[in-house]
């Protein structure tokens, strides 16, 4: 290793491992590995694309990078203080490759060798080696995504990038070139022009009508005339970004007269590309306001009386259609006339509205199909419907097509979503084991979903028998000889386990393991399957990706992905390849459908039910951004409801599994409000209830959830609600009997030589407890929150288990799962969660396998408040489960009177 010479500078030597992603470790001069938190700031110091490292992914000592990120970050431009070098020859070669790829991205010749096939970016084989081609393809794809563009738009921007680059046109010192769309004036046609303005001005310049066709060098104002060649070149590049403009005269400033249809084509295809590259686009303000205007359709769904007794997905339904346009109600006759007129822009009331004629035609076709055909619940809710019905509005309470189910259909749908009353299937006689009751439910669910034509994700906890449930299913499927075998793809590490389990439980199934260097390939593989006719083909993710051509040619009886999180990265070649495999039934097995990001869930659903969670861009806008960036409970609930029919998850805490743990006593600790709390409580409730009467259902839901949080904080302590700082225990405790009781009880538990856990939802409550216990009892009480580093978290857990401190405060979200804290004999819940599953998971940190002592659970409840009323309601709602599997927002569905009763303070 070469030592650096520059005084004050630093060198980090990089160890680089390449799989689907790059894993990078940094080593200092003394040979010690450095945590990424220390060295990555120097790597990301100029990287705007990742918000200077805020979006970086770290795994232990590894920085995890996509190929595109690797190229962008290691392109030869080091920090002035830190230099990065490869540790070995292989590491050096990877860094050199990153520089070569970076240089290629700035090479205009590259774009002569780039093409698009489907959704893949293809680099011509004569341009660089395979490594460089793969890097370039991945990097170009990431550049497109960062600009909000799709792969399909690449051909339209290739010429522009070749000459201007990804950053766009070099700005001029004294002018701005833009495009302007003007509404019809004296003629029915629109005017589209390329225009100029002074950099400090706002008025656009364009030639007069009589001089529009004169050459640029003659018609330009004197101040810009010497720049005519430069302006002509920029105009050509700008217009090259417009798919709707097929030709133009490069010698003059472009202008054209457009019809409504041409304007719509420009708005739909061109403006997004122009704005992605910073081109100024001027359109009428009223047109901007109506670009998103859509007709709204409501259908009251009911079943004919003669069919009312039929129960099942094939139940026939009927529709009563209602229409509105920008809030104006339309009759069926109005709607039909709107479609027949085929106008793009109409005036309704006092406003202009842009009408999507193509959308209207699709809607009319959908309505005609629905009225003429015997649609079923299955047709309407899931897949066999026109795409227009699957479109989602950005506002949940204003969908494009809204279906209102009558009571009988809603009851039926609820049963299906809860997976109750599924048709039972006889367990195959040749299954050499007995299925536990919950495994039988899983088997029935697998068979039911196959018969209905839906893929699914079986997401039971590890150890609950996903394997035996699938083997039972395969025996059922292949009891009648199938023309094609079923395919199971799994990690290499469990390939042998699958083989043994199939031999053990289903020896009648003929199994072929497609693995190893002598496996048949290409036509030999197809011929082998035809001759041998196996029931099940076992293979690995790596083999499936490398032998993709022959595997994709087959239509399998079923395709199962074991440890399906292996396809979680949607952009890897392996994931894209396997998601294109074709089978009659697609099944994903995984205990972790979401490990880090929601894109992983999308990738799994793209395999089991392609298109059900939309295209990735719409999924990002609808779910990923609201949930991952804004923590939107509304978006979470919407996603839970959407995935619920296709995901079956049971945990080891379910009552079907007997764990033989010692006894557990749960006890409610009732505490009255102080006068200060009661006055604040009643004031908040009265103010909020008055607001509720003026709000829509959607707004009311948001207000209810916001009020719920405020009331629960107020029940804990008024200082949390009023956002007051901690003063002293003497001042803070008398203001909340709950806080005083918890502090006192925790102190007494510690004095008896026992240990306890205190769970709270609120960081502020944790700090109040922490400071008061320390002040009164002298205990240094750790507080585990989501921001605590893993090493510190693990150290605290080990210290608590060893009895080094008696009281441990934990954030309910950060400490409610995944920890083993069996040293505790008391669990204190400072505030109530409306989902009992969350509380139970937290309690199970102490009451779990390995616990040998009696566990006392204390749940603190303020009398007469929402906490007491929630506790009463929860006794009726114990079936509610964990996040994303079943709803935990049941309170927002209560009526106004029920909500008033729930929130009102009553002694």
From TrEMBL:
Transmembrane segments: none annotated. The keyword Hydrolase applies. The keyword Hydrolase applies. InterPro entries: DUF3670, Helicase_ATP-bd, Helicase_C-like, P-loop_NTPase, SNF2-like_sf, SNF2/RAD54-like_C, SNF2_N. This is DEAD/DEAH box helicase. It comes from the Bacteria. The lineage of its organism: Bacteria, Bacillati, Bacillota, Bacilli, Bacillales. Its EC number is 3.6.4.-. It comes from Metaplanococcus flavidus. SUPFAM superfamilies: P-loop containing nucleoside triphosphate hydrolases. Pfam families: DUF3670 (PF12419), Helicase_C (PF00271), SNF2-rel_dom (PF00176). Gene3D superfamilies: P-loop containing nucleotide triphosphate hydrolases (3.40.50.300), Tandem AAA-ATPase domain (3.40.50.10810). It is an enzyme of class 3 (hydrolase). Residues 447-611 form the Helicase ATP-binding domain. GO terms for molecular function: helicase activity; hydrolase activity. Keywords: ATP-binding, Helicase, Hydrolase, Nucleotide-binding. Residues 738-900 form the Helicase C-terminal domain.
């Amino acid at each position: 290793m070469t030592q650096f010479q520059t005084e004050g500078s630093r060198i980090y030597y990089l160890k680089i491992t390449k799989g689907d992603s790059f894993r990078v470790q940094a080593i200092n001069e003394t040979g010690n590995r450095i945590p990424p938190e220390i060295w990555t700031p120097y790597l990301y110091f100029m990287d705007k694309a990742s918000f200077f490292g805020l979006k970086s992914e770290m795994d232990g000592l590894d920085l995890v990078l996509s190929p595109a990120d690797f190229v962008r970050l290691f392109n030869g431009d080091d920090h002035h203080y830190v230099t990065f070098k490869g540790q070995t020859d292989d590491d050096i070669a990877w860094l050199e490759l990153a520089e070569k790829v970076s240089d290629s991205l700035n090479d205009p010749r590259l774009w002569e060798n780039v093409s698009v096939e489907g959704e893949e970016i293809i680099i011509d084989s004569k341009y660089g080696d395979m490594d460089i081609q793969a890097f370039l393809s991945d990097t170009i794809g990431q550049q497109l995504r960062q600009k909000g563009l799709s792969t399909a738009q690449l051909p339209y921007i290739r010429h522009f990038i070749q000459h201007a680059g990804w950053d766009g046109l070099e700005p001029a010192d004294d002018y701005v070139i833009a495009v302007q769309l003007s509404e019809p004036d004296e003629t029915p046609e629109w005017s589209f022009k390329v225009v100029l303005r002074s950099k400090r001005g706002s008025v656009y310049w364009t030639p007069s009508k009589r001089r529009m066709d004169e050459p640029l060098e003659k018609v330009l104002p004197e101040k810009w005339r010497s720049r005519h060649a430069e302006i002509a070149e920029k105009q050509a590049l700008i217009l090259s970004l417009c798919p709707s403009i097929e030709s133009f005269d490069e010698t003059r400033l472009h202008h054209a007269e457009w019809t409504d249809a041409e304007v719509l084509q420009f708005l739909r295809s061109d403006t997004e590309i122009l704005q992605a590259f910073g081109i100024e686009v001027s359109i009428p303000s009223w047109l901007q306001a109506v670009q998103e205007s859509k007709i709204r359709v409501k259908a009251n769904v009911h079943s004919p009386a003669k069919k009312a007794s039929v129960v099942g997905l094939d139940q026939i339904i009927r529709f009563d259609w209602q229409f509105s346009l920008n809030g104006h109600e339309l009759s069926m006759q109005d709607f039909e006339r709107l479609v027949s007129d085929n106008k793009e822009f109409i005036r309704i009331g006092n406003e202009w509205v842009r009408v999507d004629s193509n959308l209207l035609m699709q809607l009319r076709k959908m309505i005609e199909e629905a009225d003429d055909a015997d649609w079923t619940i299955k047709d309407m809710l899931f897949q066999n419907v026109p795409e227009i019905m699957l479109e989602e509005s950005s506002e949940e309470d204003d969908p494009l097509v809204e279906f209102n189910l009558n009571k009988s259909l809603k009851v039926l749908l609820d049963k299906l979503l809860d997976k109750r009353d599924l048709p039972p299937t006889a367990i195959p006689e040749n299954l050499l084991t007995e299925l536990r009751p919950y495994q039988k439910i899983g088997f029935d669910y697998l068979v039911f979903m196959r018969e209905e034509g839906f893929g699914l994700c079986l997401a039971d906890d590890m150890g609950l028998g996903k394997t035996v449930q699938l083997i039972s299913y395969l025996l059922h499927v292949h009891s009648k000889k199938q023309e094609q075998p079923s395919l199971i793809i799994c990690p290499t590490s469990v390939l042998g386990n699958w083989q043994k389990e199939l031999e053990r439980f289903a020896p009648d199934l003929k199994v072929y393991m497609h693995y190893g260097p002598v496996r048949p390939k290409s036509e030999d593989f197809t011929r082998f399957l035809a001759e041998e006719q196996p029931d099940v083909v076992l293979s690995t993710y790596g083999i499936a990706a490398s032998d993709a051509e022959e595997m994709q040619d087959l239509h399998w009886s079923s395709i199962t992905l074991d440890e399906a999180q292996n396809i979680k990265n949607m952009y890897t070649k392996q994931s894209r390849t396997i998601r294109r495999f074709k089978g009659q039934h697609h099944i994903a097995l995984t205990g972790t459908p979401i490990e880090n990001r929601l894109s992983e869930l999308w990738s799994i659903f793209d395999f089991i039910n392609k298109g059900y969670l939309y295209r990735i861009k719409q999924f990002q806008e609808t779910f990923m951004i609201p949930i991952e960036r804004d923590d939107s409970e509304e978006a979470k609930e919407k996603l839970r409801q959407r995935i619920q029919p296709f995901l079956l998850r049971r945990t080891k805490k379910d009552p079907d599994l007997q764990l033989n743990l010692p006894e557990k006593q749960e006890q409610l600790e009732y505490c009255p409000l102080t006068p200060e709390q009661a006055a604040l409580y009643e004031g908040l409730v009265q103010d909020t209830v008055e607001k509720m009467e003026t709000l829509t259902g959607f707004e009311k839901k948001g207000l209810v959830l916001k009020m719920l949080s405020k009331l629960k904080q107020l029940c804990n302590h008024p200082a949390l609600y009023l956002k007051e700082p901690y003063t002293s225990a003497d001042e803070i405790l008398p203001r909340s009997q709950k806080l005083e009781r918890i502090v006192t009880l925790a102190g007494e538990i510690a004095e008896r030589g026992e240990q306890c856990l205190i769970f709270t939802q609120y960081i502020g409550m944790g700090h109040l407890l922490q400071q008061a216990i320390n002040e009164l009892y002298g205990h240094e009480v750790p507080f585990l929150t989501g921001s605590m580093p893993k090493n510190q978290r693990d150290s605290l857990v080990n210290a608590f288990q060893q009895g080094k401190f008696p009281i441990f405060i934990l954030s309910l979200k950060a400490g409610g799962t995944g920890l083993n804290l069996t040293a505790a004999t008391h669990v204190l819940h400072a505030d109530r969660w409306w989902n009992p599953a969350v509380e139970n998971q937290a309690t199970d940190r102490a009451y779990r396998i390995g616990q040998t002592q009696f566990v006392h659970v204390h749940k603190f409840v303020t009398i007469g408040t929402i906490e007491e009323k929630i506790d009463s309601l929860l006794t009726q709602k114990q079936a509610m489960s964990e996040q994303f599997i079943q709803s935990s927002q049941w309170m927002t569905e209560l009526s106004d009177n029920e909500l008033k009763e729930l929130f009102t303070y009553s002694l």
